[in-house]
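Today's session is about reading a structure prediction critically. Students often jump straight to the picture, but the first step is always the sequence itself: look for stretches that repeat, for charged clusters, for runs of hydrophobic residues. Only then move on to the predicted structure, which in these notes is written as discrete structure tokens rather than atom positions. Here is the chain we will use throughout the hour.
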Amino acid sequence: EVQLQASGGGLVQAGGSLRLSCAASGFTFADYAIGWFRQAPGKARDWVSCISDGSIRQLDSVKGRFSISADNTKNTVSLQLNSLKPEDTGVYYCAAYWAGRTECAKRERFYDYWGQGTLVTVSS
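Below is the predicted structure for this chain, in token form.
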């Protein structure tokens, strides 16, 4: 059974940092793309970043502030959030799909498996 467990959210002041983790189980980690999405209050869920076979893609507004990394030995993908802004507030979800070591996708429809989300709140 494929499972994704997101953790690491919390309350932080603007300019602060958090490290989110997505622990995956039930599939061959290296063959899958892992993506991070976020949903701000009252808004649709948006793609933030993804990683597949070492290839990384990021939303322009988070480049230079967020970084994604994968530890294949631990089946974990981390999203380091630095220089946080109030507009980064939302529930962050990790998701996965079999990518066959191709470039990861930005669109939700590609992602078959989802974690439960972890809340990030950035105060001004």
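Discussion point for the tutorial: DSSP finds no helices and eleven strands in the chain.
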